[in-house]
């Protein structure tokens, strides 16, 4: 038994060292990236000759920022689109769960989650733009009833209020929140709680909202905050379907960073700091509203009403088929446009189809696809190993960290992080870091992939019964053998699913690739954003479909492996 103890303690030492390494590699750079923006934002920028702190320069930078035309409207657009999309996504997600969980239609919902998540934001934004544009598919379907011979003068894409961006964020956020809720509900044992509540006279929907929703919301806060932060700071999809004049704050800051005039760098750094403050303000506003509504929610939960009408719930639920049809339609219109040779308004289908565009651009797509595949595999596999090390170390200590700590990267705007990270890295390691752009971009992807993989594995580790390992260790085998032969097979479906999510997150990364690669690393995502904001619909459709190919392949691979395990079982 002493050999087992020595083996256990040696493994625990290795896990502790690995956890420290993961924290240093994945958490410290987050603060370094923010710090890399602070100095230019306060007037210190040696590249322009400002090698000492100056209050005069500090005032000039921030006066220029706050005097920028349309800045307040850009801030309002960022907050409005992010908060609105997050609130609607939360309501629709909870409604779907309360009405369909465990029913005969729930399997259809679970089948919808994977392909909806597999379609990246950029590809979906391109397809949704084709669908709802004034000359899009939806208008073409309405032509027989309206008699239009020309597209109506509607501003349904890039509208100044940001409604098209909200719609895109809403459709993409609901599947993600549903996936997070499925993992949380596995720990809550909803069937047992629902049966107990229904035995007291509550109907099924009331039991859901009074018993399960409070517990679910408490554990759903971090994914919800991640959705909110992404909605406030989204850049890639906003460039395609969001407002342009003025643009949301994140897009405005990116344009400042891309300006060839170096004098804009200090303005961009100040703008990125402002974006961080706006994001924190959005999170604070959400928390304050949540706190104000808490007493009302408590009275509703404890009012004892067992059967009530649910018209609002059914109204929210009616949006599910609409969102699903829009999602399917965006995919279909992408596919049709990629083969369209001539497609005049108001024809529903192209009058001429051709493979010419695919044949012409296939060779140009191979390198960006292969590079995105390499980045995805490196970052997702590294994130899986890092998450397993951290979670196993916490599990052995018998105490799990708050999710906010490992996943803090989800709450920092990507623009703020990756705009300052190169400056921080250069000051620490010199200009030599730019000689390895692939490694630099891979590290940037890892910072974004790790929180999602950790979130996907955290619930499975919390729900795992350690008595299986304890019994296996009594047979005198090593801890590593027990982990590989007992724990690994039981956690394998969760690990494969978390890897698929991490791989898809890596493929769709735009800002890390653009800002850390400095234009030398071209993936299918950066190319899709470049052509998606243009006017060639066929080219945009081809690159959108090409970008969706890798995440879809990852999810299909994960599903095949997990189904194969079920067949073997």
UniProtKB/TrEMBL annotation:
Record-annotated ABC transmembrane type-1 domain positions: 75-285
Membrane topology: Multi-pass membrane protein
Species the sequence originates in: Endozoicomonas lisbonensis
SUPFAM superfamilies per the UniProt record, alphabetical: MetI-like (SSF161098)
Annotated keywords: Cell membrane, Membrane, Transmembrane, Transmembrane helix, Transport
Transmembrane domains' residue ranges: 20-45, 75-101, 163-185, 224-246, 266-289, 312-340, 369-391, 403-421, 433-455, 490-508, 541-561
Keyword Transmembrane helix: yes
Source organism superkingdom: Bacteria
Subcellular location(s) of the protein: Cell membrane
Name of protein: Thiamine transport system permease protein
């Amino acid at each position: 038994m002493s050999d087992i103890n020595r083996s256990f303690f040696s493994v625990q030492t290795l896990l502790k060292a690995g956890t420290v390494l993961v924290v240093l590699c994945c958490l410290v750079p987050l603060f370094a990236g923010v710090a890399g923006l602070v100095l230019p934002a306060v007037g210190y920028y040696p590249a322009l000759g400002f090698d000492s702190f100056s209050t005069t320069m500090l005032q000039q930078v921030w006066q220029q920022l706050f005097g920028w035309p349309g800045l307040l409207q850009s801030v309002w657009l960022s907050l409005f689109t992010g908060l609105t999309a997050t609130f609607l996504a939360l309501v629709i997600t909870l409604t779907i769960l309360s009405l369909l969980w465990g029913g005969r239609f729930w399997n259809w919902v679970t089948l919808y989650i994977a392909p909806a998540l597999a379609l990246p934001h950029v590809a979906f934004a391109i397809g949704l733009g084709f669908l709802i544009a004034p000359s899009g598919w939806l208008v073409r379907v309405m032509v027989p009833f309206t008699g239009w011979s020309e597209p109506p003068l509607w501003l349904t894409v890039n509208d100044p209020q940001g409604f098209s961006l909200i719609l895109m964020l809403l459709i993409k956020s609901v599947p993600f929140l549903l996936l997070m809720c499925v993992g949380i509900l596995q720990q809550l044992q909803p069937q047992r709680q629902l049966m107990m509540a229904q035995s007291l006279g509550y109907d099924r929907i009331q039991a859901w909202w009074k018993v399960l929703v409070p517990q679910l919301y408490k554990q759903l806060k971090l994914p919800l905050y991640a959705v909110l932060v992404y909605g406030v700071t989204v850049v890639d999809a906003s460039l395609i379907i969001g407002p342009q004049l003025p643009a949301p704050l994140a897009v405005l800051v990116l344009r400042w960073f891309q300006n060839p005039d170096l004098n804009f760098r200090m303005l961009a750094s100040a703008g990125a700091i402002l974006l961080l403050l706006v994001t924190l303000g959005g999170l604070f506003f959400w928390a304050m509203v949540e706190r104000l509504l808490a007493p009302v929610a408590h009275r509703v939960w404890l009012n004892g009403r067992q059967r009530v009408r649910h018209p609002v719930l059914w109204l929210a639920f009616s949006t599910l088929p609409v969102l699903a049809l829009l999602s399917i339609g965006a995919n279909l219109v992408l596919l049709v446009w990629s083969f369209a040779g001539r497609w005049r308004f108001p024809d529903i289908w192209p009058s001429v189809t051709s493979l010419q565009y695919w044949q012409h651009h296939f060779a140009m797509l191979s390198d960006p696809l292969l590079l995105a595949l390499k980045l995805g595999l490196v970052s997702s596999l590294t994130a899986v190993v890092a998450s397993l090390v951290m979670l196993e170390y916490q599990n052995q200590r018998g105490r799990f960290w708050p999710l906010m700590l490992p996943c803090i990267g989800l709450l920092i705007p990507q623009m703020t992080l990756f705009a300052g990270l190169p400056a921080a890295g250069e000051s620490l390691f010199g200009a030599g870091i730019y000689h390895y752009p692939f490694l630099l971009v891979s590290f940037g992807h890892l910072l974004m992939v790790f929180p999602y993989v950790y979130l996907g594995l955290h619930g499975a580790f919390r729900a795992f019964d350690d008595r299986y390992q304890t019994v296996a260790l009594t047979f005198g085998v090593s801890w590593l053998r027990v982990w590989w032969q007992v724990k690994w097979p039981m956690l394998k479906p969760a690990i494969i699913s978390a890897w698929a999510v991490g791989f898809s997150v890596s493929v769709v990364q735009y800002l890390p690739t653009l800002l850390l690669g400095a234009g030398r690393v071209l993936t299918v995502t950066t190319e899709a954003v470049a052509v998606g904001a243009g006017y060639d619909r066929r080219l945009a459709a081809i690159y959108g479909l090409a970008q969706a190919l890798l995440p879809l392949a990852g999810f299909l691979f994960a599903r095949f492996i997990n189904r194969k395990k079920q067949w073997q079982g």
